[in-house]
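Risk register update: the risk of archive-format incompatibility is retired. Evidence:
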Amino acid sequence: MELDDMKHAWQTLQVQLEQQQRLHQRLLMESRLDKMRHGLRPLVLGQSIQLAFGVAIMLWGISFWSVRMEVLHWLIVGVLVQLLGMSLVLAAARNLHLIQRIDYAAPILEIQQRLAALRAWRVRVEAPVFAVIGSFAWIPLVLMEIQLDDERVAPKLDIFLLAPWLVSHLILCGCVSLALVVVVFWLVRWAGHRRWLENNFAGKCVQKAESMLEQIAQFKQE
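Archived output:
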């Protein structure tokens, strides 16, 4: 075999190896991106359940205040429960929208940016807002349930009139609950575990997706 033939054969082999390497890289990326997509499914399922639960809470609140509009305090309680349901619906819808915006065919940097937007929403907005809401949201729910139970025994009974001290006690408990949340948050940050706390707010699904993207980015750089 002449030297020119050997060079041509070597170049052909080199081109084939490069093509195989690119194909292997593309298949590996597609496989890991597919795992990332499947890894976010539990979050999608959880947010879908939250959305349905929020709708149920919202309808419960509406059904409560719509037949008690003549009593101001029960109207307010029912509207607060309705707003709680709406907040659950809006938060779930926002999460689902951010997940849907992730284009797995886009460049890795763009996917990372979309995932970072999801993390930022869950850590900086959703978590602190629901920490505050959660400290007080149970109060109108408890009041509604007590009133509904009492009405089954005595339709004209009003827990606000029967135990006027109850609301102030429940609000005090809510304030204590919020104070405990703030103290725990401050202690965790003071102990240097802020990243751990943020990861818990973001959720395991988001953490796994971020790890998968980091692996893909490292593989492309090698």
